[in-house]
Amino acid sequence: MKKLLRLSLVLVLPALILGSCKQSERSSSTGWKYNDSEWGGFEKLDYEGQKTGPNLVPIQGGTFMMGLTEEDVTFEWDNVPRRVTVSSFYMDETEVSNIDYREYLYWTKKTYQSYPAVWREALPDSLVWREELSFNEPFVETYFRHPSYDDYPVVGVSWKQAGKFAAWRTDRVNEMLLIERGILNPSPDQVDSDNFNTETYLAGQYQGNVRKNLKDLGSGGERSVRFEDGIMLPDYRLPTEAEWEYAALALQGNQATSQDELITDRRIYPWNGNTARYQKRNKQQGGMLANYKRGRGDYMGIAGKLNDKAHIPADVRSFLPNDFGLYNMAGNVSEWTADVYRPMTSTTLRDSENHDLNPYRGGEFMQKVLDENGVPVEKDSLGKIQMEPVSDDDVLGRENHKVANVKNYKDGDDEFVNYEYGIHTLINDKSRVIKGGSWADRLYWLSPGARRFKDEDKADRTIGFRCAMTRVGGPEGNEDTAGNKFKTKNKKVKRRYK
Predict the structure, then answer these.
(1) Assuming Cys at both sites, which of 16, 213, 339, 443 could form a disulfide with 222, CB separation 3.0 to 4.6 Å?
(2) CA dihedral 109, 139, 124, 463 (to 10 degrees)
(3) Beta strands in 117-228 (DSSP E)
(4) 8 and 97 share one domain
(5) Does any domain span residue 223?
(6) Cα distance between residue 60 and residue 56, in whole Å
(7) What parts of the chain have a pLDDT lower than 70?
(8) How far is CA 364 from CA 339, 344, 407, 433, 470, in A?
């Protein structure tokens, strides 16, 4: 009997491939069978969990004290400490490198043959290296293009350009996942609007070079992948300021024990101590922990004894990673975050408990453009789903939010303060938060709590970026469904239907 049982299991297992749960399982609501075409074909997946995308590191969320808790030497008072919670997410292990960005430019130029302006607009501004009284002209030609700098962080990229790179990366990774699943064949000859885009594929506006679609249990035929299949990943995007600061501090490295919620020491930098030198007694003792400007005119020390060994940005995997495994969360290049910059954001969030989970000052809420049947209209000439800003009329009657454009929410509205750009301030609706300090900054700016801003359509030789991704499901990993599970002595209640 045992041998027969084992044999029957071997025969049944192939039917459970492609993520479906046991065919005999029934709905706890209706009693109808899942994954059975005779019962309507409604599917319930035995979901395998979110894959970790290329170059991403899982960051387990939690609560922390966000803000500048050290001396505010600039007297900006723009990052008042307050306790917030950040959901689990993913962060790039490194800053986006020159070779990464050149791959993006190659694809853009190759694909948008009828729209060369798309490629031109994506080019980094190599002229950011020029200065009136400095001989940085060689970097104008070499830093982005020469193979010696392949693994150095890309600079000269604006906030807007960084966002478009992240969107492109989302589509290429999701296309790769469908190819690896055997659903699509590689299609390197995509042109203009006929290119893989995650949203257009899910909306049925792009088919691609199909190898084998999924079985449709409802119709008995085949179907393309749906969002509900959980195969494709969420968007690559810029991290919020809160996510970036939380990931940079990596305070899990100072957790007293795994049995409590105590952090032994707060950090000034992404490492322990009040110095940027390695303090453990070994061959590395005294070595610089980050790429920054130590003082006037000192970018890398003296010949024969260089300190950080980098006069400009360094390799994206240089220096020690922090306790989350992230490289260069201090120094090398400052990094764009998703947030609009406002000095009083921290005070607003501190006074409102509604904003202490995933705090973020965004821009405009967006929505898909739909036709009269509620279906997305035809994709645009670049193969993307058409989007439009949510209007204030669209949110009338809602209780969770009443404003569609939140750039100035409670910090810039006439009711509170009016920013007059170019008269009283350099802050405007284009101002975006940058974090982390760079190779050209003093040590103060390397503290994760320090914050500065720059217009979203401008670039700099000291600013790069890395991407983040939302974590779906339980905060501790794919085996976690959230919430504490307790063992009980009570016998399980049998379902009525079996």
Answers:
(1) 213
(2) 150
(3) 214-215, 222-223
(4) no
(5) no
(6) 13
(7) 1-23, 75, 257-259, 281-283, 285-286, 345-354, 412-419, 490-498
(8) 12, 19, 7, 16, 19
Q: Quick one: how far is CA 176 from the chain centroid?
A: 18
Residue 394 lies in a domain: no
- Give tens-digit pLDDT for 229-256: 999 999 999 999 999 999 999 998 888 7
Q: Which residues contact 244 (CB under 8 A, 6 or more apart)?
A: 335, 337, 435, 436, 448, 468
| Contact residues for 353 (Cβ-Cβ < 8 A; gap 6+) | none
In a domain, 76, yes or no: yes
Q: Rounded to the nearest 10 degrees, how much is the dihedral formed by the CA atoms of 231, 89, 153, 340?
A: 110
Total-model pTM: 0.90
User: Which tokens in the block code for residue 415?
Assistant: 């009711």
| Collapsed DSSP state (helix, strand, coil) of residue 132 | coil
The HSE-up count of residue 293 (CA atoms within 13 Å, CB side) is 15
For 366, the token pair is 């967006």
- Please state the separation of Cα 338 from the chain's center in Å: 9
Q: Are residues 250 and 131 in the same domain?
A: yes
User: What does the alpha-carbon distance between residue 416 and residue 399 come to, in Å, rounded to a whole number?
Assistant: 22
Q: Do residues 408 and 432 touch, judged by C-beta distance below 8 A? A: no
Question: How many structural domains comprise the chain?
Answer: 2
Model pLDDT for residues 356-369, shown as the tens digit of each residue: 899 999 888 999 99
Contact residues for 287 (Cβ-Cβ < 8 A; gap 6+): 277, 278
Shared domain for 72 and 151, answered yes or no, is yes
Whether 17 and 130 share a structural domain: no
Q: Which residues contact 341 (CB under 8 A, 6 or more apart)?
A: 361, 427, 431, 432, 433, 451, 453
How many residues are given for the chain?
498
- 98 close to 154: Cβ distance less than 8 angstroms: yes
What are the DSSP calls for 340-383, one per residue?
A: EP-TTHHHHHHH-GGGSBS-----B-EEE-B-TTS-BPPP-TTS
Domain of residue 28 covers 2-39
**Tell me, what DSSP letter sits at residue 239?**
P
